[in-house]
Amino acid sequence: MTQRLAAVPSGARQSTLRTTNLGLVLRTVCASPTPTSRSEIAAATGMTRATAARLADELVAGGLLDEVDRDAVEPDALPRRGRPATPLLPGARFAALGLQVDAGLVAARVLDLRGRTVAERVEQGDFRGSDPAVTFARLGEVTADVLAGLPADLRLVGGGLALPGLVDEGAGVLLRAPNLGWSDLPTADLLARCVPAGLDVALGNEADLAARTVAAEAPGRAGPHRDFLYLSGQIGIGGAVVLDGRVVTGSSGWAGEVGHVCVDPDGPPCTCGSTGCLELYAGRHALLRAAGLPLDVAPGQLAELARSGDPAATGAVESGAWALAVALAGVVNVVGIPTVALGGHLAELAELLDPDARAHGLGERRGVDDVLAGRPAVELQHPRQRLPAEPDVDV
């Protein structure tokens, strides 16, 4: 018997095609490192110029794309052939909210579709062993302060919360965060007190989310490095493995946690239950203690003292460099990734760590990835910003 398939209404097919093409145009503009013309969109997508122009006009009307003055664009970024075209950039009216809770800070940052920071606030503190409700209440105050200063026409479309531990992203549960002393913590109710009602906030590991800021320079735009190991230096050390631009978490979710690689079996006990873990030697607090410095000193002060020849600071950095090199040499040889990007306090110490790293046989070594240079310790550059699957052009 011949089976007949139900016909899809022509209007539905056209609506789906239009939505798909709107998303394609938006992603094309977001992925371009320079302003893009309508004709360049047509060439990149295979659409006719008329179709590309019409879809771009809809996105401009909805605020998802912005037309910019040619005089405000660098000459090298403008098309060299044909009639002068109006350049397009991702719209500045849409943004995402990035939140972070770590053992040493709570923070909030808002970024637009171009990857630009609209507003941010970082509050240092000691949140180890803290009451989650109290800490999230503090995060809520920081977030409210950031949101209060936003332009009235800015629209938040989503966000992300970065936590230093193993998370179940789908369930929204922090399974284990040794440095915070938290486990099996549902975050939905806690987050509801921190963000505007109805805002979708995804949960993620802080090192994994930070690594995505290296893999993608801006929403939809790939960075220069597709395969690398990322280390996030906070009070402890987080890590992530990135292959072909994607973070690899493994079946357990702990892939890339270099901070808990054992560098000395006879070393001190770690909060994870093991002994001699890397972060006990190269974590921020470990380095400051070894240098005889207060735990609340300004970021970069340890590196400045080590460069000036201070014996205690130099000894602390050398010990941390040794531990880091031992851990990385094994990890890099196993995963076959010769590029290492450092964030947080490790970025500050990168040039001082390099000699030991080379001595332990690392291949191509990047102490500080260019994408990370000059960035603050909190890694919230791209907090799960999502290009809308169905662009709302009626805003």
Please give the structural blueprint.
Blueprint: H1 10-31, H2 38-45, H3 49-61, E1 65-67, E2 88-90, E3 94-102, E4 105-112, E5 117-124, H4 132-148, E6 155-163, E7 166-168, E8 173-177, E9 182-186, H5 188-192, E10 201-205, H6 206-215, E11 216-218, E12 221-222, E13 228-233, E14 237-243, E15 246-248, H7 279-282, H8 284-290, H9 301-307, H10 311-335, E16 340-344, H11 345-348, H12 350-359
Parallel strand pairs: 3-6, 6-10, 13-16
Antiparallel strand pairs: 1-2, 3-4, 4-5, 7-8, 8-9, 11-12, 13-14, 14-15
Report what the structure shows:
Residues 25-66 form the HTH iclR-type domain. Belongs to the ROK (NagC/XylR) family. InterPro entries: ATPase_NBD, ROK, Tscrpt_reg_IclR_N, WH-like_DNA-bd_sf, WH_DNA-bd_sf. Helices cover 33% and strands 21% of the residues. By secondary structure, it is of the alpha+beta class. It has 3 domains: 11-84, Arc Repressor Mutant, subunit A, CATH 1.10.10; 95-212, ATPase, nucleotide binding domain (Nucleotidyltransferase, domain 5); 225-359, 2-Layer Sandwich (Nucleotidyltransferase, domain 5), CATH 3.30.420.40. The protein has a 5-stranded mixed β-sheet. Strands 15-14-13-16 form a 4-stranded mixed β-sheet. A 3-stranded antiparallel β-sheet has the order 7-8-9. The longest helix has 25 residues, at 311-335. The model is unreliable at 1-8 and 358-395 (pLDDT under 50).
